[in-house]
Amino acid sequence: MILRPLSKPANLIRLSSEARNNLTQPDTETLMSTTLTPYLTFDGTTRQAFAFYEKVLDARIKTMMSYDDIPAMDSSDTGCGGSSVPSGEGIMHACLELPGGAMLMAGDTPPGMPGERISGVMMALQFDDNEQASEIFNALSEDGQVTMPLEPTFWTEIFGMVTDQYGVSWAINGKAVEFE
């Protein structure tokens, strides 16, 4: 599986020469390397969700740390925000490495805090192979809800959306369509 940013749709944006001249360039001396990594919050199902994603996405769990794994702290250190340090078998932090190096991170809502459903975000996967995109889409659909079946679009040969059994929304893109 190759996960990469979509570059073709950016070609649809055409700027006038005046707009291009008004764009500012970042100062290369102050640029830092930046990686954007999704971090999901589950209400007690991180361990199960990541085992599922590891299998479905042919990924590898790099970290799975429970609240009980948090190192002991000085009694004067109360943890984040002045609250007590959570404990329990819930997952404090998990990291999944996908083929190609992309990461997905998650954790369970700390004990005693209200859990919230994941909303307003969608994980987007791009594949160069439509068969692989279909397999992943079908696997993520198990016990989930298809919100848009796999179909051709103007930007990709197949595209579909699904909310999986853990409440995570996914957009699956197959082979990109060449733009002229």
Question: How would you briefly describe this protein structure?
Answer:
With 180 residues, this protein is of the alpha/beta class.
Low-confidence stretches: 1-16
Give the C-alpha Rg: 20 Å
The pLDDT mean sits at 83
Which outline best applies? globular
CATH-scheme architecture of the largest domain: Roll
Whole-number tally of structural domains: 2
Overall SS class: alpha/beta
> What's the order of the H and E elements?
HEHEEEEHEEE
Q: What is the makeup of the main sheet?
A: 4 strands, mixed
What is the highest CATH level, the class of the largest domain?
Alpha Beta
Distance between the termini: 26 Å
Q: For the record, what is the CATH homologous superfamily label of the largest domain? A: 2,3-Dihydroxybiphenyl 1,2-Dioxygenase, domain 1
**CATH third-level topology of the largest domain:** 2,3-Dihydroxybiphenyl 1,2-Dioxygenase, domain 1
Estimate percent helicity. 10-25%
The DSSP helix count reads: 3
Strand order of the largest sheet: 1-4-3-2
Number of strands: 8
* Strand residue content: 25-35%
Structure overview:
The chain has 180 residues and is an alpha/beta fold. The chain has two domains: 36-71 and 87-113, Signal recognition particle alu RNA binding heterodimer, srp9/1 (2-Layer Sandwich); 117-180, 2,3-Dihydroxybiphenyl 1,2-Dioxygenase, domain 1, CATH 3.10.180. The chain contains three helices and eight strands; from the N terminus they run αβαββββαβββ. The strands form two sheets. A four-stranded mixed β-sheet has the order 1-4-3-2, covered by helices on one side. A four-stranded mixed β-sheet has the order 5-8-7-6, covered by helices on one side. It is globular and about 60 Å long. Mean pLDDT is 83; it is low at 1-16.
